[in-house]
């Protein structure tokens, strides 16, 4: 199975200059666990901020989410693979690098994301397909 079949194409993003509070509002409002962080300065690269980052890097430490910039807690570099990569290879990459999501890139452009839940969904789809063979 190729990633193209299970990847999420609608990526939610936020500027690296946004506050963690803005990210928190967006993630809770859309009931999502991560945001693609778009670099807003030449010195930065794109990153990702997760619910885990918000909770453990800001809230648990008692920092004010209105005063912390998303770019300061974003994880970088993004793990990117081709949309033609296999689900098994991406799952292995996730294990090796201890990440929960991998971005799908097509000619330097991010076109989707695959998370652990998508990998589990792929296993169910694969089993259903093979049950009819």
Automatic annotation (TrEMBL):
Domain CBS: 7-66, 74-129
PROSITE patterns (UniProt xref): CBS
Keyword terms of this UniProt record: CBS domain
Superkingdom to which the source organism belongs: Bacteria
PANTHER family: CBS DOMAIN-CONTAINING PROTEIN, CBS DOMAIN-CONTAINING PROTEIN CBSX3, MITOCHONDRIAL
The name this protein goes by in its record: CBS domain protein
Lineage: Bacteria, Pseudomonadati, Thermodesulfobacteriota, Syntrophobacteria, Syntrophobacterales
